[in-house]
Amino acid sequence: MNAGLIATVDDQRREIAGGWIACTDGLITAIGTSADPVPDAATTIDASDQLVTPGLINAHHHLFQNLTRAWNPMTDKPLFGWLQALYPTWTANLDEESEYLAAWVGLAELALSGCTTSTDHHYLHPRRAGDLLAAEISAAQDLGMRFHPTYGSMSLSVKDGGLPPDDAVLPEDEILANSKMHVERWHDPSHGSMIQVALAPCSPFTVTPDLMRRTAELAESLDVRLHTHLAENAEDDEFAVATFGMRPVELYEDVGWMTDRTWGAHVVRPNPDEIARLGAAGVGIAHCPSSNMILSSGIAPVVDLRDAGCHVGLGCDGSSSADSASLWQEARLAMLQGKLTSGADAMTARTTLEVATRGGAGCLGRIGELGEISVGAVADLAVWKLDGPIFAGVVDDLIEGWLRTGPHHAWHTIVAGTPVVHNGALVSDQLEDRLTRHAQASRRFQTL
């Protein structure tokens, strides 16, 4: 109540000064202006002089990678070399406990940055590791975060012409059986659901075209979404042309993925014709600016992709490449990159807020439900305190001020009407325990 400004990001893009939002049973039930009577409530949050936005949505991540964050032997390599250096230590050390800890800590970090919904592209399933998808879902449930895990997969090892080592891949029939099992166990398609599962073969250099086709058919039969890495960098282009005789976007279309059921991560290097085809098909794009810069992959043509009709959301990507899981930081970088590549007026703070909210909802197939403040949408909100030296002088435009200044963390992060972050701190009392155990696991991963 008493919000300095509510940026609804709804169909009309309403901005309400002095407004209030009512939430019941995890959904938004009413929105009012300062002139409207405020309904009775069991709990209220005073947002005076603060900006209220929809909760930010993370459309691409690899949560387990924070166990090797900023590990010196693996830094300063481009994508393929970086992956080949890290696959062995990930495969040798991942288990249910380390996956749970990485997911819990990663999701807590995201919540502090105003994120309320995160996906996770988990593609590494060593046989001895246990049920890693269940481990990270348990972490999300313990924290109270809305979660879109994907059952990722790799089937093309080095001996078959791929990138991963042999013990990092599984047979394709087993992958498809596991995919079906995880969807049937965890996927909840209902409005306002807290867990939805997508299927996510990792990339052209880790799976075969046949697995891509069969996974698309399975997703259609189960009515779930599809996710993969797409047109990530020059190495990705070169591998696809040399191996399959076509560019990554051509391959994506050839295996039946050029539909509005899919979203791709990165999409740094599409040509103008490919951008038009992706947009016409309604493909979603998870833009990962930090990771794309750290791995020297390039800058995705976000403005062009949006103009073509793609839902463009934001992704933090893995915390061994982006190193920071801050959706606010990714939003600011996306704004700056967009201005640099497409013009100062092409990527405003409001446009970027749409990318960070509605765009992510589009990637996940949940427009009208997530990523906006409207009656009937989920009660996922971020409240931003705009005070202190970094906001001095921000008077005229709270939304521009929110993204131009910083660094910044959410003051409150609310998921399904329940605070996960309150007064700038994580609500859970388990943080210190999880950090201690995570540090122990990280040392095990980072022992050469």
Folded structure, characterized:
The chain has 448 residues and is of the alpha/beta class. It has two domains: 5-53 and 377-426, Urease, subunit C, domain 1; 56-363, Metal-dependent hydrolases (TIM Barrel), CATH 3.20.20. 37% of the residues lie in helices and 17% in strands. The chain has 14 helices and 17 strands. The protein has helices at residues 79-93, 96-112, 132-143, 172-186, 209-222, 234-244, 248-254, 272-281, 289-294, 302-308, 327-342, 349-363, 398-404, 431-445, and strands at residues 5-7, 15-16, 20-24, 27-32, 50-54, 56-58, 115-122, 146-153, 198-201, 226-230, 262-266, 284-287, 311-314, 381-385, 412-415, 418-422, 425-426. Strand 11, helix 8 and strand 12 (284-287) form a beta-alpha-beta unit. The longest helix is centred in the N-terminal third of the chain and has 17 residues, at 96-112. 52% of the residues are buried.
